[in-house]
Design goal:
By secondary structure, the chain is mainly beta. The chain is built from three helices and 38 strands.
Length: about 450
């Protein structure tokens, strides 16, 4: 047993009576008897601190780390134990040892108020082996709490959750954490399930989050400056990455070639609600993707290899909509708009499909093969040239908003000529409101 009474780097903070050691009063009494004056805060030794921290966790189930730099390698937390730091001044450095992880968790444990570093000052762009906190290889892991922990510089993942089974309804609860300059800030592998991230920031990682688990949730999180903000790949993975992201933002990924949200072969469904998606979405062979009440402000959506996308109540400006590359039969829209002024009467704006064509300085003929009700939106790269026309029952065209540089002429029952009188680019968006519609490519 580690002899705390002989250590001059221990400081008493009188916290024993407020700490629930090993989940019961007996553990607390044992701690008082063992520690005597109950020192609860330690200082770094200047050497490898793994044994000091491990012995404290094994003996009393709790350790309070004071400010300073601690060198650690492979701490394994007993069930119900806690590691508490003194804020950003408590810095844990994971040694280049044999364990490849700094801390490994267990059921009902908690870690809080420290920074943990993997040694890389720049984010890794190739996958390595080093992990900050490992939660895995234990079926039915439950209730591991992480709060106010800063992860930085790990070439595999800052936090790794893997193979914990699917029986637990909550495995990890992470709040107020930051993940930066890692290959993956947080990573959920096969059966890395039921993790909840709240008010966490994933910044400047190669991938902010790699989620190949299921039922994981992200609320009020920021994904900023990563190559890919949220990355999921369900290929050869029956767990398939299903879950939800609520009230989160995806920014500045496209600046260096990445994308805000990149999903591949995710077919069990995923929901994005109330999100700000500046850096766009890339969907490869994905199905049942639902984007609700969100704003795709700068980049659009690219969909390849089939699948389906449902968008409800979203704002999509013309600059982003021009970057949509989605087959018409893969997209269903409801209550969305992509122009600066909302429609005054939205009573018929309920379901839709969109076809997008781009042309500049030319006249185009649009053929409507069959329809009962549809809307045609014309926007351009200048604020002064925006048009919105509503076509009803194949015969009546009602102008809702005047386009300064565009005229539409109806030749017969189903042919319309769109004339662009200027040289700037026009975006033609065709939106189905009801009934069956086939739109031929404009000529």
């Amino acid at each position: 047993m580690y002899n705390y009474s002989d250590c001059d780097h221990l400081v008493y903070h009188g916290l024993v009576d407020n700490v629930f050691f090993n989940g019961n009063e007996e553990g607390k009494a044992a701690a008082r008897a063992t520690l005597g004056a109950a020192p609860t805060m330690v200082a770094p030794t200047g050497e490898d601190d793994t044994e000091m921290i491990q012995d404290a966790l094994d003996t009393v189930g709790y350790i309070f780390l004071g400010p300073g730099e601690y060198l650690i390698d492979g701490i394994e937390m007993p069930e119900g134990s806690s590691i508490v730091g003194s804020g950003p001044a408590t810095k844990l450095y994971v040694a280049e040892g044999t364990n490849k992880f700094g801390i490994k968790g267990d059921n009902h444990c908690s870690v809080s108020n420290f920074a943990i570093y993997g040694g890389d000052s720049m984010r890794a762009t190739t996958e390595g082996t080093r992990i900050g906190i490992l939660l895995g290889e234990k079926s039915d892991l439950r209730d591991f709490k992480i709060s106010n922990v800063h992860f930085s510089g790990f070439d595999f993942a800052g936090l790794y959750l893997n193979n914990v089974g699917f029986g637990s309804l909550r495995t990890v609860l992470a709040t107020g954490c930051t993940f930066e300059k890692c290959y993956a800030g947080a990573r959920m592998g096969y059966h890395g399930e039921y993790a909840s991230f709240t008010s966490c920031m994933f910044n400047e990682n190669y991938r902010g989050v790699m989620d190949n688990g299921g039922n994981n949730m992200y609320g009020s999180c920021g994904f900023n400056g990563n190559f890919d903000g949220l990355y999921m790949d369900g290929t050869d993975n029956p767990n398939n990455g299903h879950g939800q992201c609520v009230g989160s933002s995806f920014n500045h990924s496209a600046a260096d070639g990445g994308v805000g949200i990149r999903l591949k072969n995710i077919t069990n469904g995923y929901v994005f609600s109330g999100c700000y998606i500046w850096s766009g979405m890339n969907l490869d062979g994905c199905g049942m993707i639902n984007v609700t009440g969100s704003s795709l402000t700068n980049e659009g959506v690219t969909m390849t290899n089939g699948g389906s996308l449902i968008m409800v109540g979203c704002e999509i400006p013309a600059t982003a909509f021009a970057k949509f590359s989605v087959p018409d039969d893969n997209l269903a829209m409801s209550g969305c708009y992509n122009y600066k002024e909302p429609i005054a009467d939205r009573s018929n704006y309920n379901v839709g499909q969109v076809s997008t064509y781009i042309f500049g300085g030319n006249s185009k003929t649009l053929t409507l093969d069959s329809y009962s009700s549809c809307m045609l939106v014309l926007t351009s790269d200048t604020d002064s040239s925006n048009g919105l026309y509503l076509f009803m029952d194949g015969s009546v065209a009602t102008e809702l908003k005047k386009a300064n540089d565009v005229t539409i002429t109806r030749n017969d029952g189903r042919h319309y000529v769109i004339k662009n009188d200027s040289t700037h680019t026009m975006f033609l968006q065709f939106i189905k409101l009801s009934g069956g519609i086939t739109v031929a490519n404009p000529t």
